[in-house]
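Hi support team,

I'm filing this because I wasn't sure whether my run with adenosine-5'-triphosphate finished correctly. The job status page said complete, but I'd like someone to confirm that the output block is well-formed before I use it downstream. Pasting the exact inputs I used:
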Amino acid sequence: MNVIETQKLTKYYGKSRGIIDVSLKVEQGEIFGFIGPNGAGKSTTIRTLLSLIYPTSGSAKIFGKDCIKDGAEIRKNVGYLPSEVFYYDNMKVIDLLNYSASFYRKDCSERIKELAEIMDLDLKKKINDLSFGNKKKVGIVQGLLHEPKLIILDEPTGGLDPLMQQKFFDLIREENKRGATIFFSSHILDEVQRLCDRVAIIKDGKIIRIESIESLRQNKYKRFSVESHNNLPKSAFNIDGITELQLSENKATFIYKGDINIIINKLGNIEMTNLLVEEPTLEEIFMYYYQKED
Ligand SMILES: Nc1ncnc2c1ncn2[C@@H]1O[C@H](COP(=O)(O)OP(=O)(O)OP(=O)(O)O)[C@@H](O)[C@H]1O
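And here is everything the job wrote out:
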C-alpha cells in the first residue's frame, strides 16, 4: 500500500513558486528521503501533505485518504517534526508533552518517559531554559509519543550534536522496524545515505529524480583522474558525457557518464602517467543532479 501518494501537487505563494507537479509514492515500511537544496520546496511539500497549507492544484493522499478532507483523521496516525519548533516558553517539558498526548486516545506516558530517556531530555525543565538542541529533542518526543504509523521529519537533525544524531537515527530505525513509514527531508547527504531506502531529489520546486540509494550508487557515472608529464589542454576533454572538469596543468579530474570504451579510446591520445577510474561518492552524484538536471 502507498502510505503517501501525491499527484501533480502544486503550490504557488501568490505568484511565487513553491512546488510544481510533485508526484510521488511512498510505500508502507519505507524510509524515504526527500532531498534538495535550500528553497527547493521540501517544507512546502510537507506542509501541503499535512494540510497546514493548501495546494494550488493537484492532490495528496495519506493512508489512501484525502489530505484536506480527511486531514483530522490522518493526523492521528502521523508524527511530524517541523524544521523549526516554537513553544510556549513558560511550560514545563512534561506538561507540554502531556498536553500533546491528550490529543490522542491512548496513554502515552510510558512512551514519553522512554523517549526522554533515549534522547537524554530532562522532562522537569521549563521550555524557556532549554537550548536550541534540547528544544529540538522536545519536538522529537512530541512527534513520536503516540507511536504513529507515518513519521514526517523536516530536516530533523539541525541542532543535535553527533551523539544525539546517532541516537535519533537509531530511534528512527527502531520505529521503522516497528512498522512505521518514515518520510524525511534533508540537505545533509550523509544522513540520507545512512538511513534511506529510496530518495526523491527536488530542485526548483520540481522532482528531478526518484531512485533507490542502491541504484544511485550503481549508476553509470565514474570519476576519472588523469595525470600526465605534459600540460593537459582543455580541448582534450571536449568529449560527450564529461562534466565537472577540473584542470590544473598536468592533472585533470571529471565525472563521465557513458560507454567506458569510448572515453578510454579518446583519452588514448594523451600521454598519461596515471589514470584512476572510481565510483563517485553519493555526494558527487547528488551535486551532479543539483547542478545539471532541469
Ligand atoms: N510563506 C511563503 N511565502 C512566499 N514564498 C514562500 C513561502 N514559503 C516558502 N516560499 C518559497 O517557496 C519555495 C520553496 O520553499 P521551501 O521552504 O519549501 O523550501 P525548502 O526546500 O524546504 O528549503 P530549506 O532547505 O531552505 O528549508 C522557496 O522559493 C520559498 O522562497
